Amino acid sequence: MNKEFKYSDILISFMFSTVLIFVFLAYCDFVAEPNFDVLLTKAFSRLFSMKIWLAIFLFFVIFFIYRKHFKIINDFIFHYRFAIVFAIFALCVFFEITGSSIGMWCAYLGEADNDVVLGVSRPIRTDEWAVSTPIAISQYYNYSGSFPYFSDTVRAAATDVFLVSGTAVKNPLIFFRPFYWGYLFLPVAKGMAFFWCGRLLALLLVSFEFGMLITNRNKSLSVVMAIMIAYAPAVQWWFYGFAELLIYTQLSVLCLKKYLNENLLVKRICLLAVIVICAGGYVLTFYPPWMIPCVYVLLALILWVLLENYKDCRMRLIDWICIAIAILVFMLSMLYLYQKSKGTIQALMNTVYPGERFETGGGGLNSLFLYITNIWHSVLGEGAVANVCESSYFIDFFPICWLLPIAALNKKEDKDVLSMFLFLVSLFLGVYCVFGFPRTLARFTLLRNAATGRAIVIFGFCNILLLIRSVSINKKYSISLQSSIVIALVFLLIALQACKALNPHYLYKSKKILMSTIAVFFGLYFCLLSFNKNNLFFLWKCGTVILVLFASFLANPIRHGIKSVENISLLRTMKEIHLHEPDAKWMIEGEGIPFNLGLFVGIPTVNSTNIYPNIERWRGFDSERKYEQIYNRYANCIIMHLIDQDELMTFSLPGTDFFACNLNMDAARQLDVSYIMTRGDLTPFVYNGDVTFITMTNGCAFYKVNASKK
To answer: What DSSP character marks residue 708?
Structure first.
């Protein structure tokens, strides 16, 4: 009997290892090659590789050991989880692991990117690789000093890069942005790794701990919740800023719960300090379309914790004094932030885009089901509506996440307070997203700052908390298997019809995609509705983890360092010229030129991304304010052409966050430009004595601007 058991263990371990490695490799290939036939050819060819069989053997050994000693191993991992996460974090920083799509610069400039370990760089992530990352790196090389609050590099003018761009600065306010600390004491690539891996690992760990809180310490369900949150499509495709919001929301509630049950003064002070960091970090995410809806989730969680724990909390005079000091520190910090960035805030409030928004919601009924399309985002690289980022949500299994708590609340005598609070918040956000609010109510609730698409993201986050809470406390409630099949089928048909109404071609472009979506979600719906049956619920937990990881594990590439970008020939040439005159201002001319490239080496670039408008600069060429609606916005600025002196300077708006202009040479001198990089031909200006040719690299010419002719 023992031998048969051992042989079966060996067989199961080997089969599981082979299938897992094979599927993972197929997935990696599928991300780069979304063609099913090509995928199969690539995947099967991998089976003849010695490296693959070594990987299978290694995983077989690991899985076999785990299967034989899973309780001991699980207890060890749980007991030392903080040390394990820290060790993983340290290794990731040492090996410079990030999820940046910075390799798109190599693709754009026709050079090789040799730093990607898995996945592909994503062109759609321009806010990251083309804007935020260059600005973050520019802080190392700012000519007037590293890591300034007001950069001389971005826009080639004093620019507040702390509030808007969220970069590392040498200022006490960086205390509220712990994931940026690595930039201040580590080299560039390791600072990026600190930033990227720190947020992902923190989100996983904090979400797990929060899951332990709301599931009454159900470890397996907490792991599922952590992955559902950290690897949600909405999180991975909007990773720059959104991850922090979720970390601070959950961590602040965890600390509050711990504070109310802690009597040791030193520990209470430490918990208050973390809460203050969370509060400040929440504010500094500085994106109201997510912050405002998420506040309602946060308030519901705080109210639940207070109601559940206030009776056991012993407050002394010294505790109230510490709380008052913490509040004072937070308020003074925010006042200091306001005084420091007052001009920036006013400039942003008065822009055409993003400007002061007034949303009333509504029109989002079909989008509540759009999560079923999200499983194909990494593979196809496109979303069902708009782009892949705008189409990404939490996979929250709506409306089952509503059905289970409603049914349980109707039957249970003792109502679960947290389930009720979360359901009310979810209903509140759902009504806003589907029907919209009157203008007065939208203003009063502050949801006028949140577009429907952004509110649905937070709606999904709330639904995951509601779902996990419901299945963890309602084990006695049951739905018959026949009812589960019918309900799962009905909900699936509704979801498919909703997605078809938004885009009739996305799921239906391929029978394989459609049938896979139907099979996966019908199975998961059915298993979730049967959560009181252990075997089926186990399948749901495993299936959900696999599904979420399939959807978003490679939404961002896994990258080792940034050597390929640093070795771009064009960038090396720019750096050589820049070192001779570090404070000289540059202009990038031409539609196809990457206007933020110079930021990587600290070049002050007048037409780098205007993260908020430099109104006085552009009004100098628009005395009648004819084009102010065009340049008064957050925008990437393109100098289309240098034109002759007698030609009319014009501005145009090719996109919401792009504006283009044609400037003459006097305008360039007025901007105090010393160097011009272009793919165009400035020979007429050379003959005219306006510029001097320096060199040519990779199809781009470099010119020195001459002093104005007498």
So the answer is: P
User: What is the mean pLDDT of the segment spanning 19-25?
Assistant: 69
Question: What is the longest distance spanned by two Cα atoms in the chain?
Answer: 101
pLDDT of 408-460, one tens digit each?
777 666 688 999 999 999 999 999 999 999 999 999 999 999 999 999 999 99
**Do residues 263 and 583 make contact, with C-beta atoms less than 8 angstroms apart?**
no
CA 684 to chain CA centroid, nearest Å:
46
Write down the pLDDT at residue 49. 66
| CB of 556 closer than 8 Å to CB of 685 | no
Instruction: Report d(CA 194, CA 186) in Å as an integer.
Output: 9
Condensed to tens digits (0 to 9), the pLDDT of residues 515-532 reads 999 999 999 999 999 888
> Can you read off the two tokens belonging to residue 71?
């309780």
Q: What is the pLDDT of residue 37?
A: 63
What's the whole-model pTM score?
0.93
CA distance 351 to 362: 25
**Is the CB of residue 165 less than 8 Å from the CB of residue 136?**
yes
396: Cα separation from own chain's centroid: 18
Helix (H, G, I), strand (E, B) or coil at 700: strand
Half-sphere exposure of 485 (CA within 13 A, CB side): 3
Most confident of 36-40, 343-347, 495-499: 495-499
For residues 414 and 420, what is the distance between their CA atoms, to the nearest angstrom? 11
Determine the distance from the C-alpha atom of residue 175 to the mean position of all C-alpha atoms in its chain, rounded to a whole number.
21
- d(CA 694, CA 679) in angstroms, rounded, equals 14
Residue 98 phi, psi (nearest 5): -135, 175
Distant-in-sequence, close-in-space partners of 437: CB < 8 Å, separation ≥ 6:
360, 361, 431, 445, 447
The token pair at 525 is 């719906």
- Cα separation, 249 vs 281, in Å, equals 10
What pLDDT is stored for residue 52 in this prediction? 67
Q: Is 51 exposed, middle or buried (0-12, 13-18, 19+ CB in 10 A)?
A: exposed
Taking CA atoms, 482 is separated from 402, 487, 489, 686, in Å, by 20, 9, 11, 81
* pLDDT band at residue 15 under the 50/70/90 scheme: low
Q: Judging by beta carbons within 10 Å of its beta carbon (0-12, 13-18, 19+), is residue 78 exposed, middle or buried?
A: middle
Q: Cβ contacts of residue 457 below 8 Å, gap of 6+?
A: 234, 238, 290, 293, 392, 393, 394
- Ramachandran bin of 96, using left for φ above 0, alpha for ψ from -120 to 50, beta for the remaining angles: left
pLDDT of residue 710: 39
Give yes or no for a contact between 394 and 523, defined as CB atoms under 8 angstroms apart: no
Lowest mean pLDDT of 92-96, 260-264, 351-355, 610-614, name the range: 351-355
Q: b/e map of 529-553 (b: 16 or more CB within 10 Å)?
A: bbbebeebbebbbebbbebbebbbb
| Residues 401 and 416: beta-carbon distance below 8 Å | no
- Which pLDDT belongs to residue 35? 67
